[in-house]
Amino acid sequence: MDRNLLKNVQERSFSSQVTLSDLRDNPGARPSKKRLGRGTGSGLGKTSGRGHKGQRARAGNHGLLGFEGGQTPLMKKLPKFGHKNVHAYISLLEGLNIDRLWSWIQQGRIDSSKLINMKVLRDTGCVGSNIKKGIKLLAKGKELTKIDRPLQIEVSDASAQAKRIIEEAGGKVIIAYYNRLGLRAMLKPEKFERIPRRAAPPPKLMWKYPLHYKQVQEQMLQKQ
User: What GO molecular function terms would the record report (predicted)?
Assistant: First the structure.
């Protein structure tokens, strides 16, 4: 038999068996959709496969992440662990650069012969009026600042470079602790009929304020 004739016969026989109308998925590739509540004979009627009442039988019950049915979750059973920054309050301190402080002194806004505390800095506008936890003295602008007189500054914190610059000029930087009430009493004494006593630093921060702790102890001994 001619090869071309055999090829034509094979193509005709294959095309007669497979047509576009015969194309379909394999059995089980597309499972039929569950039709709920269509009679008890279907197996999914009445309660639609959810059972009788209860939390899981209600609509909209998606469950929250970590919810364990009302019992104490595992997250609360286990203790907390890891790093805890006890000095996080330092990030709330108002920054004061040494070049700005020296500029205020040169302009005559701040009297350098007296103690420069946070109230003086606030009243003269050297720092903002919204002081949350205190003021930290920073050394920005030290290259353009040449302090030619001794200064006495009382702030909540100071960087090592800023402290060194003040001390090299013969001055002194006092690191003082003020809690929320003490800071408000110092900044706004007119709000109080009687100025409250300064609070001692917490034990975890005692290493940072040795001078203040010594002063508080001396005051307590004098009153006894």
Answer: structural constituent of ribosome
